[in-house]
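Handover notes (outgoing to incoming on-call)

Open items:
1. DNA repair protein RadA: sequence verified, structure written out, both below. Nothing else pending on this one.
2. Nothing else urgent.
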Amino acid sequence: MAYSCTDCGYSSPKWLGRCPQCHSWGTLEEAAGDTAAVRTKAKPAPAGRKAAPITGVDGTTAQARPTGIGEFDRVLGGGLVPGAVVLLAGEPGVGKSTLLLDVAARTARSSARVLYVTGEESAGQVRLRAERIGALEESLLLAAETDLGVVLGMITSEAPDLLVIDSVQTLASTEVEGVPGGVTQVREVAAGIIRAAKDNGIPTVLVGHITKEGTVAGPRLLEHLVDVVCSFEGDRHSRLRLLRAVKNRFGPTDEVGCFDMTENGIESLADPSGLFLSRSSAQAPGSCLTVVQEGRRPMVVEIQALVDRSNGGSPRRTVSGVDGNRVAMILAVLSKVTNVGSHDVFVATVGGVRVIEPAADLAVSLALASAAADASLYSRLVGIGEISLSGEIRKVPNLGLRLAEAARLGVTNAVVARGALENVKVPPTMRVRECETVREAVDVVLKPRVSS
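DNA repair protein RadA structure tokens:
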């Protein structure tokens, strides 16, 4: 007797609660005896299903069709491909259903039939959301159903041009055992929906839940079966939403779509940089700009810092939107330049955006030094560079693209690593200083202000 993992295929002679290979719980099931024997016998291919030269295959059937939402199409690689299955995962309340209802309505406006299957909400609840975001269309068909067999029957009878399943964990098949959302049920539901989508050439979007670790709930096999896996991210206290492609058979996986969550639904943000800048025209101490990259897109972000006297005990370190570990490292480096190490420190980003890229290290350093000295930086200054433990400023990729984005928003001063401008086209309206260390950068941007 042997047991195999339904997620990764690991085999064990005894049952285990947790798979040693993929670390999934409750996935080891009893395997059929004599697994080494080959049961499938060779048989001739039916007519019309024989191998053909690749030059004779019609490629026009796999061309992407735009959905009307620019940022959504940007991440998918141009739009939805007939027969493609997209898995959209995200935390509860981030706006997955609202985004897909808007996609369904825009598709329905182009004289296409759309079938929207909801298993989490009633039809009346979805109708109310559709009214709020302006997504009421006659050719948008709505069904509140959790039985896989009924859904497959609807696909056959309605023959939709787009299928949306919200969500794959709520559907269940009566032909297999297990509770809805379990490994067995999710595998069966996904296989049935994907088979129907491929056979009928219907682009399909599946909504997926995520676990506490941030991964897609259900068997890992689910991500392998679908064509595109997208992650919808965002802080519920912020308006910004980011759509990332984790897997994409039809386009790049380094594209990011930006959306703005409003009272009337979710809107595309072709130029999101303005969300992350303060509205004040005066340059206050403790503020510095940087340019981070989300996928291929550069975004100007404002870093703000506050340094205050400690009331005794261990100094406080509070961060929001930045990596606390990197801020701690930067404070250790800055302790050789300023006395910021013994003070309470608060670092945050404007607009609620999360910055994890090392290219923002220099901006964090300059904002902290500015706050500690209570002196403003040069007006509209951007700092781009990674900080090493020795205090050296390191180069970052795509510097020319970052400087161009900063110049487009009116930034006129920049500080980068020494030698970073080699083979980089500097915008004519921008003055860029190259610095080798953090100490040198702090002296460049602060010393004229302090001495005056």
